[in-house]
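Why does residue order matter? Because the sequence determines the fold. Keep that principle in mind as you read this record.
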Amino acid sequence: MAELSPSVPPRNGWSGFDAADVPCAPILRRGEIIHNEQVVARGIIAEFDQPAVGRVRQPKPAAPVLCQRGCHRRTGARVGEHFRDVLRDSRLRRRRHRQVVSEKVVRVAV
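Structure:
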């Protein structure tokens, strides 16, 4: 990155971006990341012993998003959950609906 923007000092050349409200941050070397103020404050890096390798550092998994009161949390539709509605709205006759379900051409939720 330094080769692409040699006129931007690595730590203090961000004022123009900040003034223009452009999200930006310095590009850190791998060894600098573990000492970064935000990384340290959020406890993003975990250290643990890996039996085959020894002591390792790696990012922790992302925090789960917790649903608060009144929040409607739903995953995607289950396989076949809406297929009866799709069949009903299709141009197929009811006898054909039963046939495609019984022959397992389509899956419908139980």
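The radius of gyration is 27 Å.
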